[in-house]
Write a structure and sequence with these properties.
Elements: H1 9-25, E1 27-29, E2 35-41, H2 46-62, E3 67-73, H3 83-95, H4 99-108, H5 117-127, H6 132-140, H7 145-158, E4 165-168, E5 171-172, H8 179-194
Helix pairs in contact: 1-7, 2-8, 3-4, 3-5, 3-6
Amino acid sequence: DVDDLAETDEDAEKDAATAKAARAKKSKGAKKAKVVIQEFSDFQCPFCQKFETETLPTLLAKLPDDVSIEFHQFPLEQIHPLARPSAEASECAGQQGKFWAYKDALFTDRSWLASNPQEVFTRLAGKVGLDVPAFQKCVDTRAGKAAVDAGLLEAMKLGVNGTPTVFVNGFRAGNAYDANGLLNLINFARVARAVP
């Protein structure tokens, strides 16, 4: 709920620090990237699943070495009631260094949408090699909530209003499903970065 997000400057500072730490865990690719792809996503969103299972693999296969990709939480809770629990579960996986494997599992195994999601979250945790009791404790105490809230705040500041939304060095992609278009945007961002 947006109303539950940071309400004071101190809360905002803590959220900014949490967001920076969360980005570090949810980034892959070049460490000193010249180009950064930011993906704002919702695990329950069928369009995000399409991006993750169709577009992203094509893009990753062609991605230049100087590019990194960041995953940013943007659960659309108003229309996807399981978006936040799945996002928080992914943050718990991230606390054990397995964010990317767990993210992929959530987008691949959609059984959590039709059955008891908590049971499926736990099963997926075991499948990707997490310490399941530690994961379960993290989920039960909602230890991933702050990172998800930080993602929501960041998305709101950027004017994100739907998922998936993709930025390349701050340039918003017009069509997140067009891998060749995203590669062209990466090349444009690289040139724009070089111009003083």
